[in-house]
Structures are given as C-alpha cells and as structure tokens.
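Bench notes, afternoon.
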Amino acid sequence: MKKLHWATDWLANKNIAPEWIEWISLGIDLVILIVISLLADFLSRRILISAIHAAVKRSKATWDDYFFEQRVFKNLAHLVPVGIVYQSLPYVFNDVPAVIPFLEKIIVVYFLVLMVSLINRTLRALENWLSQNDKYTNTPIRTISQVMRLLAFFGAGIAVISLLTGTSAGSILGAFAGTTAILILVFQDSIKGLLANFQIHMYDLVKVGDWITFSKYGVDGDVLSIDLTTVKVKNFDKTVSTVPAIAFVSESFVNWRGMDDSGARRIKRNINIDITSIRHLDEGLSDTLKEIDLIRSFMEERQTEINSVNSSRDIKGGNLLNGRRQTNIGLYRKYIEFYLQRHPDIHANYTLMVRQLQPTTEGIPIEVYCFTTTTEWSVYENIMSDIFDHLYAATRHFDLALFQKPTGADIRSIQSI
C-alpha cells in the first residue's frame, strides 16, 4: 500500500484536485530540501569559514594565505551541506521513495563537480605558494599542476558517465583504450608539450624571468610563464608572445640568463676609420699626442724601443718608410685600450680587447670588445653611448677621420667644385 504524504489531508481539505496533490507534495519536499541545503550551507560558511579566516590571520605560515586567496576553504565548506542533503533524502522524500535514486545521482554529480573545483583551487594555491620558494625554482610546478588538473577532470568525467549510464568505470576505460589512436591524435599537442616541458626543466633551458631572444617567433623579452603547451613572453615593446614549448627543445634560441648571472654585459662595436687619414707620426703630431696623459708613457717606451731597433739595423732618418715608426691609428687603438681599462663601468675581470679588423669598403674597423659592470638595459646603453661619444670625438686629436658614406651635403659640395 502506497504511503500517503503528510500534507495530503491538508491539501485535500483545501479542495485541491487529486491529480495535483502528488505534484504539490513533491514540490513541498523539494522546497524543504532546498531550505535544508541553504541553511546547512549558511551555517557551514558562517562557522567553518569564520574560524579558518581567524586562524589564517593569526598564523605566521604563508601557505594558508594562498589557500585562502584561492578560496579553497570556502569550496571545502560547500561539501558539508552536500553531505547533509544527501543523508536527508530518505527522510524528506519518505513518501515518494521513487525519486530518491534520481536525486542521489544529481547530488553525487554535484559532489564530483565540487571535488574537481576543490582539487583545481588547491593545486593553484600550491602552485602559487611553491613558485615563491627558491627551492622549487627549477621544478616544473605549473606543468605538474596542469597535468594533475587534467587527470582530475578526466577522472571526474569517467565517474559521471559511469554513474549516469550505470556502466562500470573499467568498461568505460576499456572503450577509451580502443580509441587510443584517436585520443593521441586529438591530444598530440598536449602530449608533446608535456614531454617538452619536462625537458625544459630537466636541462634548465629556460625559466620564468629569463630574458630570451627567439628570432623565428619575433620574441625578445622576459619569460612570464611556462605552461603545458606554451611559453608566454613579455617583449620589451610591452607586447606578449606565446611560443610552443616544443620549440625550445627542437629549435635554437638565445637565453641571456648567463649574462645576468655573471653581472656583466658585453659591448662589441666597431669604429670605422677612413683609410686615407692613416699616417705615420711626425714631430708635430707626436708632440701633440704626448700631451695626452693616458698614452704619454706608452709613446715614450715605444719610441725608445723603436729607436733601439732602428739603431741596431743601422737605419738612419729620412724616408718614413725606413725602419719602424709609430702611427696615429696604432696609438688610437692603445688610447682606447687604456681608456677602457681605467673606466669605472668596465668590468676588469672579463675580456677587454681593442683590435683592427679586415678593411672593408667602409674603412678600417677598430673593434671594441669589453664588458660593462651592469646588465641593466638602460644603464648599459648609457655607459656604451658615453664611451663611444668620447671615442668618436677623440679621433680628431689623432688626426684620424671617421668613415661616413656621402650625404646630401657632401654631394652638393662636390657639385659646386
């Protein structure tokens, strides 16, 4: 015999049609269930969240701050009313037990959704917390977190399908196994990205904060994040680029981390000298250059050495091509070298070299090769600019001319001749 709902007699006395009484009774039960769930959720949040919030404020640990920021505890508090509602079903719907299995499935599905959300928030909190710890700098935390989130979504999906269809999880996984090739094809980018990500961290190819240059992708900036399949880079022009993670394993790129770690940045630039301005020193130019403190001692020592060699070979004066002679370009090279050696912003422990390169159609290049004591971009550029401002201006004191391609003014002056 079917058990009557407690509100049946009351509804009948209100002259409600018999065919509506059962539906209204069910609606009343649903309202009661909703009230119970809302009340349980309210009490859970008021009691549990308030207590946890107070504990987090008093705690000196930092991990709980990240968990509170990601609302892990709030998500956890939602599980309490779900359990209460699930246990209340037999009591609330004791008059209509036929709906209980259906409602139980809905609540279990909702519970699984909450669990996935809880796992997702927990992993994000752990990711943010661990990323601030230098101990885990070279650990692929973000990648591991993303993989675990994918597994959580996959596992919850299998559980929901199993629950709604009444099929065992093993049978569902067996069906998926038959479509392995299709799954690999669909998720090939994720699989390749995952493997590349582990290689990136294993070999320490790149990490967050590194300055990288990847010409193929037009990337020149700092790494913002390393995700499962992509690496996000903030370029120096403030744009953001993404590069496939696999590209860092299979292709060539430049990582400037070594420069940052060394605390020095290289200067490598040429000064092109007009070949027609190169000459041996005469007495007048020699006297002028000896007034330069940086090279006075060098000139005197070199001249003594030259005189000794010329004397030993019985070379008299006369033609400048007879014997050894000092040149303005040679002294200019030594001046640059001495100038850089005494410069406070040039690193004394790294290579410092001033050399003459192969002549070209643009004159003779004098290459300046040295390292600054800073890696900060703007400071580095200012140091380099100040150095070359001085070196360009110094050429006229050595009676040298910088090479420059003809400009409009040069062409007009030629035409006026």
